[in-house]
Amino acid sequence: MRKRKGAGRPTISDVAERAGVSTITVSRALRDPSKVSDHLRRKINDAVRKLNYVPHSHASALASTRSNVIGVIVPSLTNNVFADTLRAIYDELYQGPFQVQLGNSRYVAKDEERLVRTFLGQGPSAMIVAGVDQTDATRELLENAECPVVQVMDISDDPIDMMVGFSHFEGGRAAGVHLVQKGYKRIGFLGARMDPRSHRRMEGFKEALRSGGRYDPDLMMTTTDSSSVSLGGHLIEQLRKCRPDLDAVFCNNDDMALGALFGCQKAGISVPDEMGIIGFNDLEMMAASYPSLTSIRTDRYQIGKRAVQMIKAVLDGETPEQKIIDLGFELQCRESTMRPKSKAR
Amino acid sequence: MRKRKGAGRPTISDVAERAGVSTITVSRALRDPSKVSDHLRRKINDAVRKLNYVPHSHASALASTRSNVIGVIVPSLTNNVFADTLRAIYDELYQGPFQVQLGNSRYVAKDEERLVRTFLGQGPSAMIVAGVDQTDATRELLENAECPVVQVMDISDDPIDMMVGFSHFEGGRAAGVHLVQKGYKRIGFLGARMDPRSHRRMEGFKEALRSGGRYDPDLMMTTTDSSSVSLGGHLIEQLRKCRPDLDAVFCNNDDMALGALFGCQKAGISVPDEMGIIGFNDLEMMAASYPSLTSIRTDRYQIGKRAVQMIKAVLDGETPEQKIIDLGFELQCRESTMRPKSKAR
DNA sequence: TTGTATGCGTTATCAA
DNA sequence: TTGATAACGCATACAA
């Protein structure tokens, strides 16, 4: 019977032969060098280099029922917010032995569930999912998964395993408090997509307005359409049509805020004198616009970085001091909410 | 000797047993149903459903030296341009049996080479890479790869295998022709990052200016810094400092163009009367800004979609009519280049 | 610390 | 069209 030919590249046996040891010793030398004597380790490393040996990840995954893949599931590929976190994850994993398996749930919980099921089937080394609003089935899958799981971008008091994010409720509240303090009177909300995190931002915002005696449900305008700059413009135009006395808006995110700014400019409304605008996330453009736009800064890059660091720590056998990392947020007060005759108290 | 326990989920043997056939028949029934009789196929499909069987991809990859992974390498995760293409790739692959393996080369050719090497090692079903400016080594790797390869976002007359994109040179030229036609006299270029594609855009742009008798090398301003809205503002400010008579700019991309717009507004320069601005890619925000911004529209989503379609076709044994697909671009003329007293000829 | 035997779940090979 | 058997390359269990 003729032998099957593999991919042609060197295998662990080739390395073992060249180094004069058994395959398992090579395997150990590569995965946990401390388990192999210095002498052999050196010979093995030499052989690896000479042969330009790269472990076959599929064979490894099959034998160990564990792959070096870290599953990452985000709700959007085009939303800058997740792009920053993703970039951090890739940056942090660039050196290491891990591969990213990226899934796009498109803001659909059922799709996320499907992806989690698929990814878990590959025996990932860890999982990173966005938000805390998984379906019950997803939660259960993840809770029973034999790998670290990090929920990112949000926090709650009931993590599946670990969490890195910030409170969207508090972020929304801070935006509301800011507008109230600046003396704006008829304060509205412009919300696109309205995924769970946007919802909590809105709730926090409402609470701040209520406390400040400025809450008016008619000024809360939301849609499930995905957010965009043009949508921000349309919504503020619509809202102003019903309520011309509107004098400030908190936008769901920065794209919407930029759109709202353009909308005001088109309508000849002065920002911030006649209309205060505040966004969320503080994308780079917020500081560069004219007038510059106030926003709630969140550190998406850091979120991705910390998530990976936690995973690495757990995989190294360490126990992280905290399972929940609240990275907070920071109000970036800029021209769009700087009224000259501010009535700050 | 005790048996090793796997992940616990059903295997192909379980299905085979339940259907009363051999494992290889199950394998065939799943991969190429036409090779199995209707009778058995039905029994097998029943068993698969009953057991909720999902093939173990690692085992499959190991045995066949071919995985269901499609490797995708982009130079940036945060650049909207690639995000759109990525989204299309994911959308188009959502149903199918394929997984995306995403790599971020961060605009570094050597990193791309490393990623290609790694991905190819996993025996991907196909590869998608951005641009046509791979290193020689990368090209060789890809040319020898036993899978379809698609270069996206750009085109040349020398594809590794297949291509979907458009001519950046022509795109840049179209921008130049437009500004010349609009009667602008002292026309500049603002370029960030200056990756190979940006470079070709600039070259096309220069050519148009030369033909129009408007080329002035002193007005070409480039930097290797990554593009951003604020950078667009800084560059135009700088350029105007040296050359206050500047009356139009072509920006490398839309972020830069938006920044240039803000920069002008800050400086009290009227757009488009005193300064014409044109961007590249036509992101959604370009139409929503005030004034709206002229740009060269490219269909990034379609690029991703077509790339995947080509791959699927080839994998299905079809031969695509064309190896190079030029999706072109389209000038979106908006307010930022609409001078009232336009001297269009 | 090192090695032997064997299994991980699938597919390629060859035979019927 | 279907099946028996041997790979695929590595890691686990156990022994030395």
Folded structure, characterized:
- Chain A has 345 residues and is an alpha/beta fold.
- The first copy, chain A, has three domains: 12-55, Orthogonal Bundle (434 Repressor (Amino-terminal Domain)); 69-167 and 300-327, 3-Layer(aba) Sandwich (Rossmann fold); 168-298 and 331-337, Response regulator (Rossmann fold, 3-Layer(aba) Sandwich).
- Helix content of chain A is 44%, strand content 15%.
- Chain A contains 13 helices and twelve strands.
- In chain A, strand 8, helix 11 and strand 9 form a beta-alpha-beta unit.
- In chain A, helix 10 packs across helix 11.
- Chain A is elongated and about 85 Å long.
- The model of chain A has no long low-confidence stretch (mean pLDDT 94).
- At the A-B interface, helix 4, helix 5, strand 2, helix 10 and helix 11 of A face helix 4, helix 5, strand 2, helix 10 and helix 11 of B.
- The first copy, chain A, binds a DNA duplex (16 and 16 nucleotides) through residues 1-4, 6-7, 11-13, 21-25, 27-28, 31, 35-37, 40, 55-56, 58-65.
